[in-house]
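Dear support,

We are seeing what looks like truncated structure output for some complexes. This example has three components. We would appreciate it if you could run it in full and send us the complete token output so we can diff it against ours.
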Amino acid sequence: MAPRPLARVAVAGLAAVALLGSAACGSGFDDSSEGTAQSSGPASLQILIGSSGDAETKAVQDAAAKWAGESGNTATVTPAQDLTQQLGQGLAGGTPPDVFYVDAAQFADYASVGALEPYGDKISNTGDFYESLRTAFTYDGKLYCAPKDFSTLALQINTDLWTKAGLTDADIPTTWDQLTATAQKIKAKGQVPLALGDTRDRVGAFMVQNGGWLMSEDGKQPTADTPENLAALQYVKDLVTKGLAQYPKQLDAGWSGEAFGRGKAVMTIEGNWIKGALQNDFPNVKYQVVPLPAGPKGPGTLSFTQCWGIAAKSKYKEQAIKFVEAMTAGEQQMAFARAFGVMPSRQSVHDQYVSAFPADKPFIDGVEYAQGPVNAPKMDSVLRDLEAGLQALSTGDPKTILANFDKNAKAALGD
Amino acid sequence: MATEAPAARVVVRGGAPRRRGRGTRSSENLAGWLFVAPVVAILGLFLLLPILMALWVSLTDWNGQGSPFTRNVPFVGVENYTRLFAEDGLARRDLMTSLRNNIYYVGIVVPAQTILALGLALVVNNRMLKGKGFFRSAFYFPSVTSSVAISVVFLFLFANSGAVNKLLSLFGVAGPQWFADSRGVLHLLLGALGVDDPPAALTGGGPFGLSWWEWLSGPSVAMVSIITLVVWTTSGTFMLMFLAALQNVPVTLDEASTLDGAGRWQRLRYVTLPMIRPTMFLVVTLGLIGSWQVFDQVYVMSQGDPAKTTLTPAYLSYRTAFREFDYGSGAAISFVLFLIIIVLTLIQRRVMADRDPVARRRGRWRRRVPEGS
Amino acid sequence: MAVLTDRPPVAAKPARRRRARRSLVSRVLGYATLIFFGLVFLYPFVIQLGNSFKTEPDAAANPLSPIPDPLTLAGFERIFAGTNFPLWLGNSLLVTVLVTVGRVFFDSLAGYALARLRFRGRSWLFAMVVAVMAVPPVVLLIPKFLVLNQLGIYNSYSGLIVPLLADAAGVFIMKQFFESIPVSVEEAARIDGASVFRTFWSVVLPMAKPALITLTILSFQGSWNEFPHSLVAVQDPDLFTLPRGLADLVSGSLGKGSQYPLKLGAALLATIPVAIIFVVFQRYFVRDANDGSDKG
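Here is the complete output from our reference environment:
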């Protein structure tokens, strides 16, 4: 394009924009820094959940309908395809759902920007929640939201394939060495021994078993680059490069549970959500759950939890709190547990849960030695970078991956 | 606001209405603006205004809460930009990784689709063949389908036990685990030559926080499958453009050169290609512009994985803003991408114009429709 | 294209025979090339069609085969029972129809004004339209989100539709076309006292049928396939269009496994409308691509 029209266009563009801009200002969403105006009376609550599948969606929808019917409100439960993104756009758009799942790993991001209503003091009997779960949702000394439930990782074994590989109960691995030995036996029979998710949420368990973790105990300092973590990653790298463990994508699966359900791997490391998923998608798979093999420094697993977040911009906070109250009642938690296999966040129903689901003992027992997620704000891209490193672990250098994490985390936590 | 426009100097092309009385002209003035008003409003509101808004956001630390246009939003100047280029950190690493990926992507997609499109056009233009219409449509069809739908099909084709690997196994080749394979193709080639460990000289350092070894990885195996998809979908459009140009090559010229005893290759090299040079330029430029914008396929097929080797600047900006809520940084990446595309277009234009005085004199291609792919 | 090596001429044979044989060889090679690439470009669709009627284990075991064994509609049943496909389809239809009508009308209005009406600022407006065409759509993702937010139409049908109601390329096409129509016809109408709009509507527009059809098809195809805009314009699943729904079906965090027959089937259904339009109006598609090199 010749220079003259270009300059003309620039002038014209600026003029047009100035005109339109002045017209556009003033409209748009309100930006009240004060609390949002509250509506009393019957509320129409929008609830956004990150569902693990149809079972969970249906269970929450049923529970919400029941609550709505009894309280005279309406409650619409929407399963998010991509919770983080939908919630992010909803918050930025000033139209967030009233109630939504908040993952412990992202909790600090939301809390630090004031997106969440800190309603912890308005919910009954908060002392009943496990302390580690309360800690996960506390920011600046305030409990922001009520823990929904929690889960831990354990080892699942496909019993049919296990027998087919000529293995017995004696082969169930309880240490890293045994894990390697058993895996080699399975591989010798031409099967894939272990389906392992290529994320920190699976690989991290090995760090815990070796006495390490990504962050210091107070969650303020990155501690990835330690000999313990290095040895743990080196061990996982060995498993992966020798073909003793395979990532889900290598097995044509979206996640390890799917690969396990299809019988593409004899073992996998997943949380208690795998129960519901297998029941739904692969009801014929026979499997047993055992604790994760202990590392050199003892047993270790990871725990995950989500809470019922309430938007600071919600117009129905009072009703939303009542809704959460109903959802976190002991009885309701047991109903959820029966429907889609999560573990109640209230200690008061612990015994009830154990007696109802004795097979879940390895999951519940995990609480004793479980490590919670990293929950500092602004860590998402850092953790993502770590995962990119883990995805390429078979060709990457564990030391570099860990050192990068520390460097990036320090930068992210610094500002 | 249009008063400064030097309307008088403009040479009106085509059949412009003749001048009439004053009244008619002023009514035409009004009608003209009324006619263009909807388009001006929509393009202004949803194209120009957003660009300015994003420019502002890229200078702030807006975290996605409330409006970005209030005093509470921290203004950080060019910090988002300096973080992308000058500071050794994750932001720069990510951007550079995505640029590296996209450079390899462009470096393969543009030549491949241009050559394939030209080849197809030459075959379809062959006067001796029948049924060309059918094949022309067949080659073009992928271009009109939805990028998302096609990505779904290619996810299936490139699955580990998918059609492509099945096909390869027919020839005794064990196909890779496409979307799980983050290894760079150049690294693999070097590995085949026995260079398994990177030479120390290349790992020590490199520009912008990536080591030379990382810069020289080549596209990852996962990226190769996206490249295949894109070449497959875009070649048809460009084939039609070449076809139109080829049909303008006078038959007599072709025949004359045949009688002169010129071989096929020579005819192509010395007769056909020079004749269709403007189209060649158009195809390469549109290819360059389009392939820096790759987004849909990455979103659907790989989301930047494995190990960030399919991360592109377009997807990175989206992810930074909408998944990490760092809208300032995301907008800044958008502008970097914007700049790359504009600069490339200008450079390309200058180079081709200097090398091709005929095209410059005719200036035909200057106002052509650039359709984003 | 095949590069043939010329054999050394054999003195005994007349040149004509030699040329005839050479043209036969090149014809065979030409057809071989056509058929090979025909397969490359069409077989993926055949695979898609075949596998959408397969069972999951069959699709995983025989991905290359186009014939389902056994044939099952389970994938399609799940599309309609297990996903929001009907809703996405409805939204896509609504968006596509409104956007197509809007683009055809607004673009031809503007195209006509830029081609025929003399008003102040016309030249720079046209230059601006050309400049706007060069703005790469993907860099507008965040900007568009911001403006929709600010205007309060984020996450609504208006946000999904209004920004797409005009496009610079369409204005450009219409302007080029109107300039090719002789002026005399309009002049006659004007002298008869018809208003500008009336002249445009009843005299000029009917003559612009070929361009209008081209623009309709382009708009239909563009808005039916539009993905990035819906990504930043809405987040409510009730407002998802087909490409958006499809993308989330594939990449979403539902963890439902690969389900290839279902996904391929959904992608197939999303492709069919454009495929039909393509087959029926082929020459207009071709014409559009050629516009790029013919006009200017």
